[in-house]
């Protein structure tokens, strides 16, 4: 890779639903592309750190500030030639989610119902032991 080559970077939040026996994660349904369900977050902008991007994207998409607990994984996605940074986050108890125009709905999905890739990223987050995981998909 040459110095001036570029590739995609993104930051995403794993936010669990409190008070449920089976872990459930917050997903948003996009209004663009193929309208997939995904974790809150998105691409880094120029001159932005991975933490700044995470906070900005969550504020834009959810209308609330998230509390970042830790970076749990970095994942290379070959289909998009991208690196995704996954953070464990929380919402404060008094939050009210207000979606941006980029998303039509949100819900908490049990981890067992996620796609293989999403499930692996969430399981890595849930089993975080102080060592950031790195995987390729």
Helix-strand topology string: EEEEHEEEHE
What would the average pLDDT be, to the nearest integer?
93
Shape: globular
Helix/strand class = alpha/beta
- What value does the Rg take, in angstroms? 15 Å
Helix share bin: 10-25%
Low-confidence stretches: none
The number of helices is 2
Q: Can you count the beta strands?
A: 8
What is the end-to-end distance? Answer: 20 Å
Largest sheet geometry? 5 strands, mixed
How would you sum up this structure, described in words?
With 137 residues, this protein is of the alpha/beta class. It is built from two helices and eight strands; from the N terminus they run ββββαβββαβ. It has a five-stranded mixed beta sheet, sandwiched between helices. It is globular, with a radius of gyration of 15 Å. The protein starts with 7 loop residues before the first strand and ends with a strand.
Question: What order do the helices and strands come in, and which of them pair?
Answer:
Elements: E1 8-15, E2 24-30, E3 37-38, E4 41-43, H1 50-62, E5 67-77, E6 82-90, E7 103-110, H2 116-126, E8 133-136
Parallel strand pairs: 1-6, 5-8
Antiparallel strand pairs: 1-4, 2-3, 2-7, 5-6
Please provide a brief summary of the model.
The protein is of the alpha/beta class and 137 residues long. It has helices spanning 50-62, 116-126; strands at 8-15, 24-30, 37-38, 41-43, 67-77, 82-90, 103-110, 133-136.
């Amino acid at each position: 890779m040459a110095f001036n080559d570029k590739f995609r970077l993104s930051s995403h939040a794993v936010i669990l639903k409190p008070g449920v026996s089976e872990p459930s994660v917050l997903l948003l349904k996009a209004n663009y592309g193929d309208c997939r369900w995904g974790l809150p977050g998105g691409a880094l902008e120029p001159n932005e750190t991975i933490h700044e991007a995470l906070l900005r994207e969550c504020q834009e998409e959810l209308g609330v500030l998230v509390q970042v607990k830790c970076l749990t994984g970095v994942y290379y996605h070959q289909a998009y030639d991208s690196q995704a940074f996954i953070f464990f986050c929380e919402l404060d108890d008094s939050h009210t989610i207000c979606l941006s125009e980029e998303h039509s709905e949100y819900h908490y999905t049990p981890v067992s119902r996620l796609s293989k890739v999403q499930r692996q990223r969430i399981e890595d987050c849930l089993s975080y032991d102080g060592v950031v995981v790195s995987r390729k998909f």
